[in-house]
Design brief:
The protein is mainly α and about 260 residues long. The longest helix is centred in the first third of the chain and has 23 residues. It has one domain. It is built from 13 helices and no strands. The chain is globular.
Length: about 260
């Protein structure tokens, strides 16, 4: 749970700092940092894609998942929910459509971004905090930049962000014993492709519907398991590998069989 806690705290502190020191940050810095964040995300995504165990499975999951996201209007539904919350809270920005659209974009990026979702699930499965700690650094500085523009609303986004990341972490930790190394590799590669789409969107090169691509990460593991069983052969589960006994096949057996006479 280190990753979700660190990431949400970094966003809260960054948003608060941006609100308090908005007058001290130059405009050119506010314009440059999001581009740097996009390039970093692109580099991370390119690295993760190379870990695919079965590339056809990754392609299939991305196509089917993106179609599902488009059919259920995932990104549009999120926007409607945020508008409803503004009306319910009777916010002074309720009639400011530009402000609401910007907040919707921030909620999508901080709470439903591919890096956060993949990082939480990856930590729950492998225990590695690298991705979420990297995201925490990005969110800290992003929070500062956006806090200068949108005030304390940026800090409040940390609350639903932590709830979502913690839920994903707990779910992944429960499913970890039933996963195979191939499933984990394909899941990593699928997240890497969405990372690339996110980076291109952050740089303003192409506005990919990243939220609509997220169902791919839900179906990649079942598809990978089916592919391994019926096409590539099913390897043992990660949970089973931890309990395997016996010497490593590359090592000589005990009892002198590996000794040489002089």
């Amino acid at each position: 749970m280190i990753g979700p806690i660190t990431d949400s705290c970094a966003l809260f502190v960054g948003g608060l700092a941006g609100t308090l020191f908005s007058g001290f940050i130059p405009k050119r810095v506010k314009e440059t940092l999001p581009l740097i964040f996009g390039v970093i995300t692109l580099c991370m995504g390119s690295t993760l894609v190379n870990k695919a165990s079965a590339l056809p499975v990754v392609v299939m999951a991305l196509i089917v998942g993106s179609v599902i996201g488009e059919l259920v209007f995932a990104e549009s539904f999120l926007a409607k929910c945020i508008r409803a919350l503004f009306r319910l809270a009777k916010s002074k920005h309720c009639g400011n459509e530009t402000y609401i659209v910007n907040i919707i974009t921030l909620v999508s990026a901080f709470c439903f971004g591919s890096m956060g979702i993949f990082g939480a699930i990856n930590e729950g499965i492998t225990g590695s905090t690298d991705i979420l700690l990297t995201k925490a650094v990005l969110d800290l500085f992003s929070g500062i930049v956006f806090g200068t523009l949108f005030g304390l609303s940026v800090s409040l986004i940390a609350i639903p962000q932590f709830a979502i990341l913690a839920l994903l972490y707990a779910s992944a930790a429960f499913l970890a014993p039933y996963m195979t190394p191939g499933m984990l590799s394909d899941f990593t590669a699928c997240g890497g492709v969405i990372f690339v789409a996110t980076g291109l969107r952050m740089c303003g090169i192409k506005i990919f519907p990243v939220i609509n691509m997220l169902p791919s990460m839900l179906i990649i593991m079942p598809l990978s398991a089916l592919w391994a069983r019926y096409v590539g052969g099913a390897p043992p589960y990660i949970g089973m590998q931890r309990h395997e006994k016996g010497p490593h096949p590359a090592l000589p057996p005990r009892g002198g069989a590996g000794k040489t006479r002089r």
